[in-house]
Amino acid sequence: MRRKEILARAICHDTVPHLPMMYRAHPQVSKKLLRYFHLDNLEDNWEDLIVELGADNYSDGETLGAFSTYVPLYIGPDLECICDVDHFFVWGIKPIKNPSNGELEFHHNSPLLGKDDLGDLRSFRFPEIEWFDFERYRVVIDAPDQDIRDHKIVKLSEINRSERFFLNTAMMNSIFMTSIFLRGIEQMFMDLVVDPSYAEMLVGKIGEFCLDFCRMTLSKLGSKIDLYGIWDDFATQEDLMISPDTWRRYYKPWHRRIIEEAKRYNLIVAYHVCGNCTAIIPDLIDMGVDILDPVQVSAKDMQLAELRRRFGDNICFHGGLDSQRLITFGTPLEIKREVNRLRNLYGNRGGLILGPSHYLTIDTPIENIVAIYQ
What is the 3 state secondary structure string of the chain? Predict the structure, then answer.
């Protein structure tokens, strides 16, 4: 049975020959593993890497393909900033590269901070659909700190379903995150409570563009891919950043409509939200989400046994191995014991794609990574 079929069966809660395992890590970690297994460059050898590890997939946060995700080519105005992979730059959000780790940060320049009138919103330069070419696509590779302009371009006619791995699209749907980066996190939280007219207009403008972008992308790409991914981090390790009712009022309706669009093409829908999101897992199921990522088991109420008991028949979990403490600071024996425990918990019933809860970081010992998949 092909790895892709095993993953698909797990997502659908069908019987699987073994618990499918996924790998994800910072590119520098992958480069260390390439040297360990005597392989060449990552972009050409990522499939060989997962074979050597014993994994079934090289995943990304909101997709099942860190090297097979396609996003329309940006052809809009030069906004004089880093063109980040997630395209926050099209909203006028200028990312800054953290000098200590090279990661991009988006909260330093909030273009709508201090612009408190509805007139400011009406005159703000929001992105336009015409800024994207839906006949040409960037192949998003696993390099989150890299400028998107460095990525490979392919024509729509060159994209075809693979029997070996999932093809995905995931971009321009982080509605909550876009709103807090545009407005500033503290001010956006205030707007949601004391200025609902402003909040509704801002979230509405973001949501309208994201929905139009989704429709246009899937009208071209929907029949060629397998999965639609959404990334919108609005939880901490303790709880949601905003109340469930506030999320349901402002953000859920837009994601519901986006997911409905993806389901028109019979696509699997994966939804990435870190931290403790148990309060809205029933909402995600109701909206049609098939996969929840990352299952951050170090967060409150996010242990896999309880999640499986409460929700396991209706959603597939993706992740579930603690990368904050266990994989980074544990021993290979402790990691193997946890993997075996979860294998026994899930058996061959599907419903889990097991792997690190987040990207493995550069300080993770190689022997600990290898222990996950042995």
Answer: CCHHHHHHHHHCCCCCCCCCEEECECHHHHHHHHHHCCCCCHHHHHHHHHHHHCCCEECCCCCCCCCCEEEEEECCCCCCCCCCCCCHHHHCCCCEECCCCCCEECCCCCCCCCCCCHHHHHHCCCCCHHHEEEEEEEEECCCCCCCHHHCCEEEHHHCCCCCCCCCEECCCCCHHHHHHHHHCHHHHHHHHHHCHHHHHHHHHHHHHHHHHHHHHHHHHHCCCCCEEEEECCCECCCCECCCHHHHHHHCHHHHHHHHHHHHCCCCEEEEECCCCCHHHHHHHHHHCCCEEECCCCCCCCCCHHHHHHHHCCCCEEEEEECCCCHHHHCCHHHHHHHHHHHHHHHCCCCCEEEEECCCECCCCCHHHHHHHHC
Examine the domain organization and report whether 83 and 213 are in the same domain. Answer: yes
Residues 54 and 86 in one domain: no
Q: 57 with 73, same domain?
A: no
Q: Are residues 207 and 152 in the same domain?
A: yes
Residues 92 and 209 occupy one common structural domain:
yes
Per-residue pLDDT of the chain (374 residues; tens, 9 = 90+): 899 999 999 999 999 999 999 999 988 899 999 999 999 988 889 999 999 999 999 998 899 999 999 999 999 998 888 888 889 999 999 888 887 777 778 888 899 999 999 999 999 999 999 999 999 999 987 665 567 777 889 999 999 999 999 999 999 999 999 999 999 999 999 999 999 999 999 999 999 999 999 999 999 999 999 999 999 999 999 999 999 999 999 999 999 999 999 999 999 999 999 999 999 999 999 999 999 999 999 999 999 999 999 999 999 999 999 999 999 999 999 999 999 999 999 999 999 999 999 999 999 999 999 999 98
| 331 shares a domain with 204 | no
Q: What is the domain extent for residue 363?
A: 1-61+294-374
- Same domain? 253 vs 109: yes
**Overall domain count for the chain:** 2
